[in-house]
Amino acid sequence: MISIRDAVVSFGAMRALDGVSLEVGAGELCALVGPSGSGKTTLMRLVNRLVEAASGAVRVRGEDVMRMDPAALRRSIGYAMQSVGLFPHRTVAENIATVPRLLGWDRARIASRVAELLAMLRLDPALSERLPGALSGGQAQRVGIARALAADPDILLMDEPFGAVDPITRRELRAELRRIHAETGKTILLVTHDPEEALELGTHVVVLRAGRVVANGPPGAIMAPGGDPFARELLGGAQPGLRRLSVLPAASALEPEPAPGDAPVLPEDASLADALSVMAERGCDRVALAGATGSLSATGLLRAQ
């Protein structure tokens, strides 16, 4: 879906990307994470030609982006950013309809799509006639995502989309993005400076440092013992082993022994970190998993890690 080969980007004397290669498959949610100035946003912007490489190749859907009309390319790719960027004098509905209008959709089709997206993002339909200044930060961020999805693009670029909201709203928006990704199967490239966010959302995580990729793969593999030390420290801090538990499914450590009748029952999609948290809070050493036979013990949990 997205292929970047040996990309070099410089801004004056500063080399922002130094021979970066990346493959993002269809339907992946690829999280780009790294320190400030590591090249995350520059790498993402290569995809819609907001940045152009001095050398190397960038292909989207198999086509060289340098052979594509930039405006048409950008209209085919959704783009959501931290600052939201809503037009202040246009209503919520008019903001969401921006790209469909440019593509020549008729009014009925636009109205139907706006209503569909308000429902998808769990926004009150009454908000459609409000101006952005009357929205909360979380509502504005949801409208920004709705606008990025309006023309139903197969690729969505997100540049730190949740960075300007409070922690509770941020958790809610993460959950919404996970749901939307699961429901739509869109290919998403997400820039974040938040290690927890990268591990929670990414099916594919890329760690950058000084314009180079230092780790690239599934979250569990990047956090595994023997992984790149910088990536493990960035994503896991002083406790990479505990952080790795959050990306490993509890189902991976199930044992045949049945759980006691009073054992806590975890959701079927629970992580090993969820299991450990429940064990610590309840003072037990074995939990059950909804819909599964067997159980998970504290010893099995540590062995799986």
Low-confidence stretches: none
Class computed from helices, strands and strand pairing = alpha/beta
How many helix segments?
A: 13
Which strand order do you get reading across the main beta sheet?
A: 6-7-8-3-9-10
- The percent range for helix content is 25-40%
Largest sheet: 6 strands, mixed
Strand proportion: 15-25%
- Rg result: 21 Å
The total beta strand count reads 13
What's the overall geometry? globular
Question: What does this entry look like structurally?
Answer:
This protein starts with a strand and ends with a helix. With 305 residues, it is of the alpha/beta class. The chain has helices spanning 40-45, 70-75, 92-96, 98-102, 107-120, 137-149, 167-184, 195-201, 219-222, 229-236, 240-245, 272-282, 298-304, and strands at 2-11, 14-24, 29-33, 55-60, 63-64, 77-81, 155-159, 187-192, 204-209, 212-217, 265-266, 286-289, 296-297.
Strand and helix map with partners:
Blueprint: E1 2-11, E2 14-24, E3 29-33, H1 40-45, E4 55-60, E5 63-64, H2 70-75, E6 77-81, H3 92-96, H4 98-102, H5 107-120, H6 137-149, E7 155-159, H7 167-184, E8 187-192, H8 195-201, E9 204-209, E10 212-217, H9 219-222, H10 229-236, H11 240-245, E11 265-266, H12 272-282, E12 286-289, E13 296-297, H13 298-304
Parallel strand pairs: 3-8, 3-9, 6-7, 7-8, 11-12
Antiparallel strand pairs: 1-2, 1-4, 4-5, 9-10, 12-13
Features:
6-stranded mixed β-sheet; 36% helix; alpha/beta; 23% strand; 4-stranded antiparallel β-sheet; 305 residues; globular; 13 strands; 13 helices
Sum this structure up briefly.
The protein is α/β, with parallel strands linked by helices and 305 residues long.
